[in-house]
Amino acid sequence: MQINLKRLREAGAKGLIADVTNRLGGECIELDYPERGPRESKLELLKIGEIKNCLPPKEIREGDTILIFKPSGEIVYTGTLTSDGRLRHKDGSKSVLSVAAYCARWRTAAGIKVLRKPWWKYTYTKRECMVPMRDGKHLYTAVYEPEGLSGRPIILQRSPYPCNPFGTGGPGDIRDNFRMYADNGYIIVYQNVRGTYLSEGEFEDVRPVGGPVDEVSDSYDTIEWLLANTHNNGRVGIYGISYPGFYATLASLCGHPALKAVSPQAPVTDWWMGDDAHRRGAFSLADMYGFGGFFFLPKLNPTPDSRESITKVPEDQSIYEFFKGKSMRQVWDDFGDALPFMNAIKEHPDYDDFWKERNPLRHLRNIKPAVLVVGGLYDAEDTWGALHTYKAYKEAGADCRFVYGPWTHGGWKKVDYYLEEIEYPFFAYCLEDKGSLPEWRELWMPTGVSEPGPADENFKMIEDPELGKMKTFPIAPGTYISDPLEPVPYMESDAPKREKPYMWAPQNFTSQRPDVLCCIVQEPLKEALLAIGPVKVHLRAKVSGSDTDFILKLIDVAPDGTQTLVRLEVMPARRRHGMEHPEPLEPGKPFELDFSMMDICHRFAPGHSIMIQVQSSCFPLVAMNPQTFIKNQYTAEQKDYRAVEVSILEGSSLSVFTD
After folding, report:
1. For residue 213, what is the DSSP state?
2. Comparing C-alpha atoms, which of 408, 412, 404, 502 is closest to residue 446?
3. Rounded Cα gap, residues 533 and 225, in angstroms
4. 114, 202, 312, 539: least buried by Cβ within 10 Å?
5. How far apart are CA 133 and CA 158, in angstroms?
6. Cβ neighbours of residue 61 closer than 8 Å, sequence gap 6 or more
7. Could you report the per-residue pLDDT of 550-606, keeping only the tens digit for each?
C-alpha cells in the first residue's frame, strides 16, 4: 500500500515521514502489511503514536482519513471514508469492505484512528548547510524555516549528539520540545558542534574556553551566518538540555548583539564536582560505563552514524552483580585505550586545572542576553550544573531566572504548563516583544510524593523563596562495617543499567542492612514541613582504615512505613580538607567532615517522619572506595579493597532550611 505524504500531513500526521529508500519519488511511502517480512522493506513506518488530533471512529465523516493499526502502533492500512461508509483506495477505487471489515481482515489490528485537524500550523522547509567558522572549518547545520514568512526569530540548539534525520525529514524535537516555536513560526536550527557527525574539525569533550577558536567563537560565527542566510528578525535565542546546555552556557559568553535569550537546562557544567562523571571526585561508575563506552570513542567525522558502545552489561544481569567484586583496574581494563577521555579521567583523579578550566562558570561576566536556567529535583545527571549555573549567573549580575521543579532529567519538556507558561513566554518576550517577563526571579516547585510530580493536587509554586530558619537534626552515634565485597546497592533493582527512579525510590531495603546506619530524626509531624535550599551535613567520625566514602540520605517516611528518598549525597573522606589534595585518614582517629547536599524543595506531609541514613557505599552508582588510601583510586587492585569499621560519633548533625 502506498500513501501520499502530503495528504497525511494535511490530514494531521504529527511529524515528517521520510521515504528513506527514495524508491517512491519522495512524496509517497509504502506501508508494511502484517504478512511482510521485516527485511523486505527498509522504509520508515508511520506509527500511530506519532499522530496528533485523532478522533474516535464513531465521529468519522465523509472525507476523513482512516488509519488501521496494529497493537505495536504500526499502521497497516489507510483510506478515505466515502458517503456510504466504505473506504476509497489511493487509486480512486472504492472498497467493497467497510471500516469494521478492514479491522477484521487484519486480525492483528488494534483499532482505527481518524485524521482531520492539521497539526502543522506552518509548512516548514529544511536546508542542510555547512556553516563556515573563522578558522575555515564548516559545521553541519539543519535549518527549518517556515514557508511564506519573513522577519521570524531564530531558536538554535548546538549539540554533540546527532541532528538526525540527516537528509529528508525532521527531528522529533520539532513536534515535541519545539512545538511552541513551530506553532509560532520560529526558524528552528540544529547544529552539530565541531568534530561531531557531519561537522568538520576536531571534537574535544567539555572544551575549555580560549584559543583561536572555541565553542564561544563558534556560537558567534553561527549566529552571524544565520542572520545573513535566513528570513529572520535579527534576534536569536539558544537553548539546550544536558550536554547541549553546556553549549548554551558558552554561547552566552559570545557577546553577539543579536543573541537576546539563552536557556541552559540541566547543563553539563563540572564533570568532577557533581555532573554525570563524578560526585566530588567519586567516580559515577554505572553512568560512565554506559555513556562513556560509546560517547568517549574517537569521533569518525564526517559520518551520520553514531558509534556502537564497546562496554555493555548483559541484558540478563543486573549492574550490581556485573560490577560486584571488580577492582577499578579491572574496570579500566574493559576500556583499554579505546576511550581517550576515559584515559584523561584516570590521569586526573583530583580537582586540578584540567577539570577547572572545563567549567564555563569561571568565565561568566558581562552577560548580555537574558538567561533562563532550568533544573529538576529528580535529575539523576545534572542537578549540580543547574544549581551552580544559576548561582554563577546571579553572582555575575546577569538578567537571570531559575526554575527548579519535580522533574527527572529534561522531564520539564513534557509538561505543557512549563512549555506554555514559562519557557515559550521567556523567549517570546526576548525575541518577539510579546508579553512580559515574570516578576519572579526564582520559581521552585516542591516534591512530596514517591514519583516525579507536584507535592499534591493543590500545590503552590514558590516564587523567590527565602531561606527560613535552619532546623538541625542530631544524627545518633553508631557503628557499621563497610565491606567492599558486599557493597550497599544503590537501588533495589535487577536492571542492566542505572535507573532514574533511584532518585525517589523506597529505601526500606537498605534500612534493614547492618552496614547502613538509620536514624529517625523527626517523629510524625503534626503539620506540614517545607524544607527548601541546601542541606548542611556535619559529621564526626572515625574509621579503622585509611579511607572511605560517606553517603548521606535524607528520607521521607510515610505513615505506612514507606521510606522515600528525598536527597542522596556522596562525600569522600579523603576530600575533607579540600578537593585538590586528597589526604589519608589516620586509622581510629576521630575527624570532622562538613559538606552540603544539593538543594531540595520538599514538603514533608503531616503524619510523616524524617529519617537519615549513613553508609559508605552506593553501588554501582558510585564506584566502591577501596578503603585503603591510594593516591589514584583508578589504579586500585583487588588486594587494595578492605573492609573497615566506620563509627559515627556524638555531635554529628544534618540541617535543613524550613519555611
Report:
1. S
2. 404
3. 42
4. 202
5. 14
6. 81
7. 999 999 999 999 999 999 999 999 999 999 999 999 999 999 999 999 999 999 999
pLDDT of residue 256: 98
**CB 568 within 8 Å of CB 600:** no
Residue 104, classed as helix, strand or coil, is helix
CA distance 365 to 431: 22
CA-CA distance, 9 to 11, in Å (whole number)? 5
Q: Is residue 219 within a helix (H) or strand (E), and if so which, with residue range?
A: helix 215-229
165 — pLDDT class (breaks 50, 70, 90): confident
Sign of CA dihedral 32, 34, 35, 38: positive
Look at residue 54 and give its three-state secondary structure. Answer: strand
Which residues are 535's β-sheet partners?
597
Stretch 34-46: mean pLDDT: 33
Q: Please, what sign has the CA dihedral across residues 559, 564, 567, 568?
A: positive
Give every CB contact of residue 184 below 8 A, 6+ residues apart in sequence. Answer: 424, 428, 432
User: The cell 505495536 sits on which residue?
Assistant: 72
Separation in Å, CA 539 to CA 422, 599, 650: 40, 19, 9
Sequence-distant (≥ 6) Cβ neighbours of residue 176 within 8 angstroms: 413, 414
- What integer pLDDT is reported at residue 266 of this predicted model? 98
What is the model's pTM? 0.84
Q: What share of the chain is helix, strand, coil (3-state, %, to 5)?
A: 20, 30, 50
C-alpha grid cell, residue 171: 527531528
221: left (phi over 0), alpha (psi -120 to 50) or beta: alpha
pLDDT tens digits along 310-330 = 998 999 999 999 999 999 999
Q: How many CB atoms neighbour CB 489 within 10 A?
A: 21
The grid cell for 152 is 521570524
User: How many separate helices (H) and strands (E) can be counted in the chain?
Assistant: 15, 30
State how beta strands 54-55 and 187-192 pair. unpaired
- φ, ψ (nearest 5 deg) of residue 602: -130, 135
410-443 pLDDT tens trace: 999 988 899 999 999 999 999 999 999 999 999 9
Distance of alpha carbon 125 from alpha carbon 144, whole angstroms: 6
**Nearest of 542, 524, 557, 536 to residue 477 by alpha carbon:** 542
Bin 574: left if φ > 0, else alpha if -120 < ψ < 50, else beta: alpha
- Angle among Cα 415, 418, 424 to the nearest 5 degrees reads 125
Q: How many CB atoms lie within 10 A of CB 458?
A: 6
Contact (Cβ atoms closer than 8 angstroms) between residue 377 and residue 406? yes
Question: Which set of grid coordinates corresponds to residue 195?
Answer: 568534530
SS3 229: helix
Residue 10, pLDDT above cutoff 80: no
> In Å, what is the CA distance from 170 to each residue of 17, 124, 125, 461, 652?
8, 9, 9, 35, 55
A 10 A CB-CB count for 388 gives 21
- In this structure, the strands spanning 529-543 and 644-648 are antiparallel
Dihedral pair phi/psi, residue 417, rounded to 5°:
-60, -45
In a 3-state reduction of DSSP, which class is residue 494? coil
d(CA 27, CA 390): 46
User: What does the alpha-carbon distance between residue 535 and residue 556 come to, in Å, rounded to a whole number?
Assistant: 14
